[in-house]
Structure formats: structure tokens, C-alpha cells
Amino acid sequence: SQQLKKMAETYLEKADPMAKYRAGYAEKLAALMANPGSITGVPGYQAGLDAVERKMASQGYLGSGNMMTALAKQGGSFFNDYLQQLMKLAGVNVQTDAGKIQYQGAADSAKLQGESLNRFIYGMSGII
């Protein structure tokens, strides 16, 4: 029984190669939520703002309200994209659907574990 349990755990670990990294991404996600201003230190954030600024300056909008709106939009988009990326890497995939929040990451994980165990048990049935 213990050997079968160990084999199942090993199989599950191999089925989810990102599992060992999820805690690190969850920590980054928690840190970002605790301090949203830390987004300015994420690689690519400043480069995106610089690109928007150069584009707006080339069109004659340097310092205008249009430029400020474009910079705010870029910053917000970058934050949301980075947040979604961290959530997926941490194993959390929250989706809103008609007012409902579905924790898809947990459901996918449970489904994967069930399928893995079924395959493992099926494979073991040929040996026993």
C-alpha cells in the first residue's frame, strides 16, 4: 500500500513539472498584491512606458492629455498582464463569468490528479 502510494505521488509530480515552482510565483503574486507600486521594478514596465512616450512625442502629443491617457493605459495593461501571468504560474486561474468566480486552477489540478491516478491504477491492474 505504501509503495503504491509512493508510486502514485511520483507519477503526479512528473505530471505537473511546474509544481515545484508554484510557491515562488505565489510569493511574487502576494508581494505584488501587497504593494502594487512594485510593478515599476518588473522588467519591461519602464520600456513599455518609454515606447508609448516616444510614439506620442513623434506624433506631437508630448506632455498632452492624450499622452497621459496612453501612459496610464499602458501601465494598467502591463499590470493586469503580469498579474494574470503570475496567477497562472502560481496555479490560480480566476475567471469571472456572469458574476461567478471560478477557481479554474484548483479544478484543473483536481482533474489532472484524478486522471493521473486512474491511469496509474489502470497500468497497475495489468501487473497485479
Strand fraction band? 5-15%
By secondary-structure content and strand pairing, the structural class works out as mainly alpha
- Name the average pLDDT: 79
User: Could you give the order of strands across the largest sheet?
Assistant: 1-2
Low-confidence stretches: 98-104
How would you sum up the global shape?
rod-shaped
Order of helices and strands: HHHHEEH
Which range best describes the helical content: under 10%, 10-25%, 25-40%, 40-55%, 55-70% or over 70%?
A: over 70%
* Count of alpha/pi helices: 5
Count the E strands.
Answer: 2
For the largest beta-sheet, the strand count, sense and barrel status come to: 2 strands, antiparallel
Compute the gyration radius: what is it? 22 Å
Distance N to C terminus: 13 Å
